[in-house]
Amino acid sequence: MGIDPNFERNLERTGEEHDVDVWGPVEPPEKLGVRGTHVAVDFDICLADGACLEDCPVDVFEWVDTPGHPESDRKANPTDEDQCIDCMLCVDVCPVDAIDVDPGRENRI
Ligand code: SF4
């Protein structure tokens, strides 16, 4: 199962890390939640494939270390989500559907 596209309704915003919102529940290192709002990555699904980092035309993503997480020890953080041009490439290339992009989400919170 991929990221919940309605996570902003179903999860609580629990804080901020690496310049983006964190949506809980979060219990590091095993449970890391969803990261970002306009460009959101479910860190508990991300397996560090890296296609989003390679393909994003405006370099929204950067690696952050997540030692001890069961899926992967680094994750694609949407650090520069405010640069996103909504091309949806990252959504299409992610092999585990860990990414959801929605430019209107900020206005619905
Ligand atoms: S939708 Fe396009 S511009 Fe936005 S983060 Fe994904 S690949 Fe980058």
From TrEMBL:
<feature type="binding site">
    <location>
        <position position="56"/>
    </location>
    <ligand>
        <name>[4Fe-4S] cluster</name>
    </ligand>
</feature>
<feature type="domain" description="4Fe-4S ferredoxin-type">
    <location>
        <begin position="37"/>
        <end position="66"/>
    </location>
</feature>
<dbReference type="InterPro" id="IPR050572">
    <property type="entry name" value="Fe-S_Ferredoxin"/>
</dbReference>
<keyword id="KW-0813">Transport</keyword>
<keyword id="KW-0003">3Fe-4S</keyword>
<feature type="domain" description="4Fe-4S ferredoxin-type">
    <location>
        <begin position="75"/>
        <end position="104"/>
    </location>
</feature>
<dbReference type="InterPro" id="IPR017900">
    <property type="entry name" value="4Fe4S_Fe_S_CS"/>
</dbReference>
<dbReference type="InterPro" id="IPR017896">
    <property type="entry name" value="4Fe4S_Fe-S-bd"/>
</dbReference>
<dbReference type="InterPro" id="IPR009157">
    <property type="entry name" value="Fd_Zn-bd"/>
</dbReference>
<protein>
    <recommendedName>
        <fullName>Zinc-containing ferredoxin</fullName>
    </recommendedName>
</protein>
<comment type="function">
    <text>Ferredoxins are iron-sulfur proteins that transfer electrons in a wide variety of metabolic reactions.</text>
</comment>
<keyword id="KW-0249">Electron transport</keyword>
<keyword id="KW-0479">Metal-binding</keyword>
<feature type="binding site">
    <location>
        <position position="94"/>
    </location>
    <ligand>
        <name>[3Fe-4S] cluster</name>
    </ligand>
</feature>
<feature type="region of interest" description="Disordered">
    <location>
        <begin position="1"/>
        <end position="25"/>
    </location>
</feature>
<feature type="binding site">
    <location>
        <position position="52"/>
    </location>
    <ligand>
        <name>[3Fe-4S] cluster</name>
    </ligand>
</feature>
<dbReference type="Pfam" id="PF00037">
    <property type="entry name" value="Fer4"/>
</dbReference>
<feature type="binding site">
    <location>
        <position position="84"/>
    </location>
    <ligand>
        <name>[4Fe-4S] cluster</name>
    </ligand>
</feature>
<keyword id="KW-0004">4Fe-4S</keyword>
<feature type="binding site">
    <location>
        <position position="90"/>
    </location>
    <ligand>
        <name>[4Fe-4S] cluster</name>
    </ligand>
</feature>
<dbReference type="GO" id="GO:0016491">
    <property type="term" value="F:oxidoreductase activity"/>
</dbReference>
<keyword id="KW-0408">Iron</keyword>
<feature type="compositionally biased region" description="Basic and acidic residues">
    <location>
        <begin position="1"/>
        <end position="21"/>
    </location>
</feature>
<feature type="binding site">
    <location>
        <position position="46"/>
    </location>
    <ligand>
        <name>[3Fe-4S] cluster</name>
    </ligand>
</feature>
<keyword id="KW-0862">Zinc</keyword>
<feature type="binding site">
    <location>
        <position position="87"/>
    </location>
    <ligand>
        <name>[4Fe-4S] cluster</name>
    </ligand>
</feature>
<dbReference type="GO" id="GO:0051538">
    <property type="term" value="F:3 iron, 4 sulfur cluster binding"/>
</dbReference>
<dbReference type="GO" id="GO:0051539">
    <property type="term" value="F:4 iron, 4 sulfur cluster binding"/>
</dbReference>
<dbReference type="GO" id="GO:0009055">
    <property type="term" value="F:electron transfer activity"/>
</dbReference>
<keyword id="KW-0411">Iron-sulfur</keyword>
<dbReference type="GO" id="GO:0008270">
    <property type="term" value="F:zinc ion binding"/>
</dbReference>
